[in-house]
Specification:
about 775 residues; alpha+beta; 9-stranded mixed β-sheet; 5-stranded antiparallel β-sheet
């Protein structure tokens, strides 16, 4: 006999790995202790048993357990008789033999692991033989195709994780309970996003997020800011007021945002943005509130968030009805009273009591005696405050805004105890020459739910409280420090008009003027989830598509993302990611020129975020589908369940040895993407180009037929998304800086469009408005 024939004979005599003893111990243990089923049900399946009689017995035990019946020699033998399987397992004697030879079920998990291990080895042997047979008989398949198939079957074994994958038909009865459990889970889940969130709120509402196993096509023409001026003030959680410019310098804040039920709550911005110099307009409301913004900055209207460019004089916008913000600073009551007197009454700055009513004069004297600063240190401290009040702006000392609620009420009470600046006639009128001073008073009153209107008459500003609920709040929370009961009686009569308190934190204020103010430095904040904040006591809204989604999933949600960038190098892509995340002008990053210290600080913070982000970039050019599948599978094995795969872009891929036309080739690529998405249970975003023929149409919004080399893309894709920016085609477009994300196809949901803002200097799409989609 030759050596070759001897090897073949030895190979044919090899027995596949299995353990009869371990298989018998599992079956015997389950008969001894029925509860042990729940310890092994997820570890082994029927096909993991090597001997056929053991497979039958395991199936019988599973059936009895699922029916809630006991499992012993008698019940098993009865089941086997009913199903004509008793002789197939060797009769009742073999059943009794297994039962008697198993002392206990104590080590049943260890036995199950042995059986499962032997099963995997047998599967590997079979797969190895199949791979070898395929190599001997390729039947026209290329080596790359054979490698792809080989890796797929090996990967399938590894992914089984102890439970044999279902194959072939599944009875509907087996799907009923798992489906109902899924529905119950979704019904109890907060929000409407059931898939992978993209960070674009309106898009997620329309799609419920990116669904696992979906193929998403994003297409657009190959080649957008809402901001407020730097002097706009924002109230922080400690009561202090800071400008948005200062806030962007600090890069840290806790402030109010409008949430569900039109109620304010505290939040923290996720990004602080300097958007450079842009044209702005001043918006003035009937209450006298003002803010300067870009035309693209949205305001909340009764019909939803709208950019300033779509709002005209006379329309209503949302303003806070109250701002429940108070600090924790406390001072002696005498000092708080004196601050109110000194800041509110000019002659008291010189301690001139001549013109004071007796009640106020006595109160001021007592406060001065309690103040009793013999050293002069406190007097020197408050002289600084008085100097501020005497300045041209006459602003409040910063400590006033951080006072605790009771002391802030006391301060306002004494501030209003000025008969020369105060009048009562079915309302409260207060007069002052300083705009900064009077607006500070208006803001502090708002913290107590008191709406005050500001109007200017020549050189004097008039603050008026007239709305019934505000008058009632003024009486209850601030009070009137006066000897005349007539003043209080007059206001109380007026408040009889107030029947119920408004439970919302906002009210509607008419716009009285929109005036261009030239070019100014503007800023913005990114607010997670709600995307709005309060500036100058007005509710305002804050600031490439597939990569922005990838960035959000990996950086913010910490879910593994794989990016195949066949158009840009990994360095170019990282520059874009740094620009988008750090909010640093991309041109500055590309050239390294004009980068300021603040830019480097932003880049360092972005680096720290990237350091922890599970984002993986492959820059290999001209991928083919088989190479991509191999690398995605490998990434899935290393990282576990993937959150997202992005391919940029589909038309740069090729199929090796393709002899068909390009449309057929692209169709094969799209089918391979869909197959991979289902295999790994991961959404895949594939970028695609559009045909230039759309430029010949008057309406240049993309359609399904505009997909370049479409082939079966439309059929394979679960979600098709087009990006349209009107300013690309119309230089004078009113929608500059705005992008439409058009959902042209959604297999399991509605179609429609969502508006986003495009910050070109950062190559970043941003949330636009919560109600900006239009269903077909």
């Amino acid at each position: 006999m030759t050596d070759a024939s001897s090897d073949q004979t030895i190979q044919s005599l090899k027995t596949p790995p299995f353990s009869v003893e371990a298989e018998q111990s599992i079956l015997g243990g389950l008969m001894l202790e029925n509860e042990a089923w729940f310890n092994v049900a997820d570890l082994v399946s029927e096909t993991d048993f090597y001997r056929h009689e053991h497979q039958i017995l395991f199936r019988a035990i599973k059936s009895l357990t699922e029916e809630g019946r006991p499992c012993d020699v008698i019940t098993l033998s009865e089941w086997l008789v009913i199903h004509n399987q008793l002789d197939a397992i060797g009769g009742l004697s073999y059943l009794e033999q297994i039962y008697k030879n198993t002392p206990s079920a104590a080590n049943i998990v260890a036995y199950a692991e042995i059986v499962r291990e032997r099963s995997i080895l047998r599967q590997l042997i079979k797969v190895g033989q199949d791979i070898a047979n395929s190599a001997y008989h390729p039947q026209g398949r290329s080596s790359m195709k054979l490698l792809d198939n080989a890796e797929s079957v090996v990967f399938e074994i590894a992914e089984q994780q102890g439970t044999q994958k279902r194959k072939g038909f599944i009875k509907i009865q087996e799907l009923i309970y798992s489906t109902l459990e899924r529905i119950d889970l979704l019904s109890n889940q907060e929000g409407e996003v059931t898939g992978i969130p993209t960070g674009f709120k309106d898009f997620d509402e329309l799609t419920s997020g990116l669904q696992r196993s979906d193929l998403i096509i994003v297409a657009g023409r190959p080649s957008m800011g809402k901001c407020i001026t730097g002097d706009s003030t924002i109230a922080l959680s400690d009561g202090s007021l800071v400008t948005i410019k200062e806030l962007c310098h600090r890069q840290q804040a806790q402030l109010l945002t409008l949430g569900a039920g039109d109620k304010f709550h505290l939040t923290q911005p996720s990004a602080f943005i300097n958007s450079g110099i842009q044209p702005v307009c001043r918006v003035t409301t009937q209450l006298g509130r003002e803010i300067e913004t870009t035309l693209t900055h949205p305001f909340l209207t009764p019909t939803g968030w709208k950019p300033l460019s779509e709002i005209v004089v006379g329309q209503k916008i949302a303003v806070p009805r109250q701002l429940n913000l108070f600090g924790t600073t406390t001072l002696p009551d005498c000092e708080v009273k004196l601050l109110g007197y000194w800041l509110g009454q000019d002659y008291l700055k010189k301690n001139d009591l001549t013109h004071l009513p007796p009640l106020i004069k006595e109160d001021f004297k007592i406060a001065m005696m309690q103040f009793d600063d013999k050293t002069g240190e406190k007097r020197e401290k408050y002289r600084e405050f008085i100097d501020i009040a005497n300045s041209s702006n006459q602003s409040f000392p910063p400590i006033i805004f951080t006072l605790a609620r009771p002391q802030l009420a006391l301060f306002l009470n004494r501030l209003f105890a000025n008969t020369k600046k105060l009048s009562f006639y079915s309302c409260v009128d207060y007069y002052h020459s300083s705009e900064v001073f009077i607006k500070s008073v208006q803001h502090l009153l708002l913290r107590f739910g008191i709406l005050a209107t500001l109007k200017r008459n020549n050189s004097v500003w008039k603050l008026q409280i007239k709305e019934p609920q505000s008058l009632l709040n003024f009486i209850n929370h601030i009070g009137i420090f006066s000897e005349s009961q007539l003043d209080l009686y007059t206001l109380q009569e007026c408040t009889n008009l107030c029947h119920t308190a408004d439970t919302k934190d906002i009210c509607w204020d008419h716009i009285t003027a929109i005036e261009p103010q030239g070019n100014k430095e503007v800023f913005d904040l990114t607010i997670p989830d709600t995307h709005n904040f309060v500036a100058n006591d007005i509710c305002v809204h804050n600031t490439s598509f597939a990569m922005n989604i990838a960035e959000y999933v990996a950086v913010e949600k910490k879910i593994p993302v794989g990016v195949f960038s066949m158009e840009m190098s990994s360095e170019q892509l990282m520059m874009r990611l740094f620009s988008s995340t750090a909010r640093v002008n991309l041109q500055r990053i590309r050239t390294g020129k004009n980068l300021e210290d603040d830019d480097w600080a932003k880049l360092e913070r972005a680096r720290q975020k990237f350091q922890e982000a599970p984002l993986f970039i492959d820059e290999t050019p001209a991928f083919n589908p088989y190479e991509l599948r191999v690398r995605v599978r490998r990434l899935a094995r290393e990282q576990g369940q993937l959150g997202l795969i992005v391919v940029d872009y589909l038309q740069l891929m090729q199929v090796p040895d393709n002899k068909e036309n390009r449309a057929t080739e692209v169709s094969e690529i799209s089918r391979s993407f869909k197959s991979l998405a289902k295999e790994l249970n991961v959404p895949i975003i594939a970028l695609s180009q559009l045909n230039r023929s759309l430029e010949q149409r008057p309406d240049k919004r993309p359609r399904m037929s505009d997909l370049r080399e479409s082939g079966s893309i439309e059929q394979d894709a679960d979600l098709i998304v087009f990006i349209y920016r009107d300013e690309v085609y119309n230089e004078d477009s009113p929608d500059k800086g705005i992008a439409e994300v058009i959902i042209a196809k959604q297999r399991n949901g509605p179609t429609g469009a969502v508006r986003l803002t495009f910050a070109g200097q950062y190559t970043k799409f941003e949330n636009y408005a919560s109600d900006s989609y239009y269903n077909e």
